[in-house]
Amino acid sequence: MNKNFKEGQLVAYAPTDQNGLVYKVQIGKVKRMNADNTAVFVYYHASSTASHTPVQHVYPIENSSYITITDTFNSLD
Asked: Where does the pLDDT of residue 4 fall: very low under 50, low under 70, confident under 90, or very high at 90 and above?
C-alpha cells in the first residue's frame, strides 16, 4: 500500500492495541508528511494544529470523492 500521502488527502487513523486490534477510527485531512516519510501530520478537528501520526496507523480513503464535509474548519479549507 502506498503510504506517500498528499496535502489535503482524506485519511483514516486506525491505531491498534497490544493485541493488534483497532480500538478507534478517526477521519482526518493531511497537512504534510514528515521528512523521512515515517509519519504524517493530520488535521482531526477544527483547529490549526495537526497531529504527528505514525504512518503505519494511517490509511487513505479511496472513495473520498463521495464524502462531503458540511462543517468546514479553517484548517481543513
From this structure: confident
Which helix (H) or strand (E) is 39 found in, with range? strand 39-43
pTM: 0.78
End-to-end CA, the chain: 27
Q: Are 44 and 15 in contact (CB under 8 A)?
A: no
Tens of pLDDT, residues 15-59: 999 999 999 999 999 999 999 999 999 998 766 788 999 999 999
CA–CA distance, 62 with 73 (Å, rounded to integer): 22
Cβ within 8 Å of residue 75, ≥6 positions away: 29, 31, 43, 46, 47, 48, 49, 50
**CA-CA distance, 47 to 10, in Å (whole number)?**
16
Q: Are the CB atoms for 58 and 42 separated by under 8 Å?
A: yes
